[in-house]
Structures are given as structure tokens and as C-alpha cells.
Amino acid sequence: MHQDKLFIGGAWSPASTGERIEVISPSAVTPVARVAAAAPADVDAAVAAARTAFDTGPWPRLDPTERIAAVRRLAERYGERRTEMAELITSELGAPISFAQRAQVAMPWSMITAFCDLAESYPWREARPGRYGSDIQVLREPVGVAAAVVPWNMPQFLIVTKLVPALLAGCSVIVKPAPETPLNALLLAELIEEAELPPGVVSVLPGGRELSEYLVRHPGVDKVSFTGSTGAGKAVAAACATDLRRVSLELGGKSAAIVLDDADPAAVATAVRSASLSNSGQICNALTRILVPAGRATEHIDALAAEMSSLVVGDPYDAATQVGPLVAQRQQDRVRGYIDTGISEGARAVIGGTAMPVGVDRGWYVQPTLFADADNSMRIAREEIFGPVLTVIAYRDEDDALAIANDSDYGLAGSVFTDDTDRGVGIAERIRTGTFGVNQGYTMDPFAPFGGVKASGYGRELGREGIDGYTDTKSIAVAKKKGA
């Protein structure tokens, strides 16, 4: 891999400085690689290349079918190197290899093809009859140069859901991966190079927070798509507001699983485990507040405890491992701090805690932890922990459950579990979130829009709406000829 260079405007170039990012294995706590770190001068070069590609180059002026064909070439290259991509993500993120293969790589790969399918039926140009005698043409044109700023937790998925719709729309794109996980982004850059997109259309610039700030404030950028914490998202929104720059934000979550009185505890526990603890709980739409009927609380707590106790915690390269380390020591310290806070606030740790998991002697691990006897005012119920920590909250009746679920600053996702599907859909309609699942965690279906409300951000990714976010709508009114 080109670890000593940056992918700027579709070509590998030396970085403007000698700064390097050291990538550390979260399980072994040893260096994995050192890669070039981008600096403001590299952003300037990437933006200049992107502006040229958009303002005078062929990419935004191609027929959509030609852009679709180019992105399908990328999907072919991606499929050929899925194994390598998964191994890189495991090495730099610590995601269990089975999860890396399935969710971190196979899902983004399928998303590329799904977006191409959507683009084939997308209304790039449509005719409408005008009310006042004109013929109306509605065009959807690329918004311009897009900056895609992504975090470390689901790096390929989050890059693909920004990069691919932007490319299909005709934008040029600058991808800024997180410093913890740059290797997979650099491999993707190699695949983009092999797909032979025109010069300037894509750049990949690893770097830290300061680089992100410089990029989102750059006057040559027309649209920013950011995924990260709510605090950082507010700063991005403020920076974009200064120049009226388009921005979409996919931010934090504190999603509730509402367990109704007719739900089976064992089935709920299995579903919650998958929806809440994959990727060591480092998922923005994880179900972390488990709302159970007070009369059946013990049954559900016991089932959840049994399910979580059975999880295999350990070496992420072992196919049997279900929970790996957290991405960094600061993340381990943060999650352990929340566990201590939960105990100090009066919640009961049913399983787990701050000790290292049994059989693990190094790495940034946290035991899967289940809290009971909690209420929705506690910090462990209100703040995003981003680790393998679940909080059970008992409710009196259905209205109480709805009130607790909606009593949150966040509104990204949620779920309901019930033997009555119609009842579950009725619950979904009364919860203020951008996405919701009935008898499952929310599935990231490529044909359904994904995004949040309230402090979880605004804008949508995936679905037709994912392409909408990278287009401007132009209306053309054509006077009808006399006698027509």
C-alpha cells in the first residue's frame, strides 16, 4: 500500500510534510503501520483538483449511465479484495474478523451495487405540466465539491454511503478518514485508481481533527457530509453556516428498545445482543436503553444477562470471537468511566464491570456490562457510551414506555419487540426517531433512508434520499409555442 503517500486528485503524491500517523492494534497494543498524515497544503491541493474536475472536467457532464458504469467497475474491484479489506479493518479497529467480513466489508460492497441500481431509476430529469401554460423541466444536478468526514467505527460503510451517491450525482469528493483507521481508506483509494475515474474526482486524506476543521471550512467545498459525535457535529454545522455551505450530519444516538408485555425474553435478548453489542457496542444506532414491563423485568434481565454472559470476548482474529477490543485506550477509559458512574448513581451491575475480561491480558477491552435498577435520569441512560454497556429500565404501562423512549436528546433509531406486529408499527409511529425496527434492530437497508432527528443530526443517507443529498434541483420553465 502507498502508506508514504496521499491520494490527491486520483494520483498518489508525497505529503507536504513528513508527519506520520501511527496505527496501533487495539488487541495487541503494538504498531500496525505508519502512514502519511495530510496537512492543510494537501487539502488545498485536493480541493483545487476537485474544483477543476467539477468546474471544467468531464465527470459532472457525463450521462448518468456512464457514471454508473464507472462505479460498477469500482464494485468489481472491491469484491476482488474483500478479504484484504476485512483483515485491515480488524488490524486497525479491533473488530472481530467475522463481523469485519460481514458488516464492515460485505455490506459496503453490496451498498455500492445498490446505489448503482437506485441511480438507474433516479429522476435526473423529469417533465411536469405547468399550471400557467409553461412546460416545466426539473433537473437534479450535482452540488459540487463534497467533503466526506468519517469516524473510525464503521469506516468503509460510512465512506461508501457518502462517496458513492456523491459520485453518481456527479460530484467530486474529498474523503477524510479518521486517524485511527486510515488503512482501509487507502486500500479503497487503490481500488478507485483501478476503476479509472477521471483526474481530480476523488482524494483520500488521512488526518486528525484539525485537518477536518480545515477541510469543512475550505471555501472551495460546496457540501459537507459528516458522521461523528453530536458535539463535533455542532461545530461542523456552525462552520458551514458561515458560508451557507450545504451540510448533512449523522450524529450520536441513545436508542431505546421497547419490550412489550407479550414479547419472549429469550428472543428479545438474542435480538438485542446483535443490535447492541456488535462491534463492541461502537455503533451509533445501537439499542442501549432496554425498556421492559415492570411485571416481567426479572425475566428480561435474566435472559439478557445469560445472552451477554455467553459472548466470546477475545482475539479479534479468531473467527469464534464475538466481542473484540475498543478502538483506543481513551475509549476504554471512557466506557469504564461510565460503568463507574452507573454504579455510583445507584444502578446495579448485573454482569460485567471494569475488570479485564477473563482470559484477556492485554488490549483495550471492556467486559460486556448490563445495568438494572436504573432510571432514565441517570447518565448511563442519557449519554452515548459507545461501548458494550446496556441499561435496563422498567416501565409501568405502554404510555410510560413511550414517554421514556422519547425522553432523550437523541433521535437516531429504536426498536419495539412484540408478538403483535400491528401493535409494534403503532408504537413505531409514536417514537420520534429517524429510523425504527419492529422485532429487530434497525437494518441498514440500502433502499431505505437512514438518519436522525434532534441531537442525532439531519439529512439522510441510503435510499434515493442518499443521492438527493448531493444534488441541487433546477426548474426550467419553457413557454409553449402559440397554438400548441
TrEMBL record:
Which branch of life, at top level?
Bacteria
Kindly state which reaction or reactions the protein catalyses. Answer: an aldehyde + NAD(+) + H2O = a carboxylate + NADH + 2 H(+)
**Listed name of the protein:** aldehyde dehydrogenase (NAD(+))
Q: Which UniProt keywords apply?
A: Oxidoreductase
Q: Name one Pfam family in it.
A: Aldedh
Active site per the UniProt annotation? E250
What's the family? Belongs to the aldehyde dehydrogenase family.
Query: Whose protein is this, by species?
Result: Mycolicibacterium arenosum
Instruction: Provide the top EC class.
Output: oxidoreductase
Please list every transmembrane segment annotated in the UniProt record, as residue ranges.
Answer: none
Residue intervals of the Aldehyde dehydrogenase domain:
12-476
Q: Under which EC number(s) is this enzyme classified?
A: 1.2.1.3
